[in-house]
């Protein structure tokens, strides 16, 4: 993918420079940078350009995560995962050239509709499970699944995005202990500072399914309250949740990761 898009660069070496792009509106902003709608001057190719400030990355010791995000982007090639075309950098920033998903975050759809029907939620969960299954087959754990990190393309299909907190399992028996992700979506083993593996993504699918069907996460509260609720698997269903939805979510939100449904 990188080799083919590098033909669109203006430079003889085939490497991108920031001057190769025309910038449109900002698409999103994070702690380490910003994402812009962009267009390559040479071919008018539309993309999203994610810009990360090196000063911020160094300040928070995130260089290793940027490396992993880059490796994950080059390795993953799936229709339900946002394509990373290439990465380049200059003295001040890293730049990720990404596929543009024109309908933006799934979170915005959820805010507009307040909650999804069983049919729509099931369709979205099905797509995310396929994307995660592929990630896991490539030994990658996403670790930050949430509606804000799921984008919607021009056809209404989902694109799993933002691998900034992802990690790679080097060996089948390798376990992680790094606490990261979004609090409402953290698995009990992360909250409890225990070792974990792929099952933390499966837990997130359960939280996501609950949020898509209700409009809010199952363990909402203050930070301390949320941690206690997660540790004790303390949640309840609104009356309108169907029995199949309850069973699916219950089988994912398990305290013992070995009992969690595989995606």
From TrEMBL:
Entry keyword set: ATP-binding, Kinase, Nucleotide-binding, Serine/threonine-protein kinase, Transferase
EC primary class: transferase
The keyword Transferase appears for this protein: yes
One GO molecular-function entry: ATP binding
Record: residues binding ATP: 50, 99-101, 148-149, 162
Catalytic reactions of this protein: L-threonyl-[protein] + ATP = O-phospho-L-threonyl-[protein] + ADP + H(+); L-seryl-[protein] + ATP = O-phospho-L-seryl-[protein] + ADP + H(+)
Domain of life: Eukaryota
Keyword Transmembrane helix: no
Domain Protein kinase: 21-263
Cross-link (Glycyl lysine isopeptide (Lys-Gly) (interchain with G-Cter in SUMO2)): 146
E.C. no: 2.7.11.1
Active site: 144 (proton acceptor)
A matching Pfam family: Pkinase
Family: Belongs to the protein kinase superfamily. Ser/Thr protein kinase family. Aurora subfamily.
Protein name: Aurora kinase
Lineage of origin: Eukaryota, Metazoa, Spiralia, Gnathifera, Rotifera
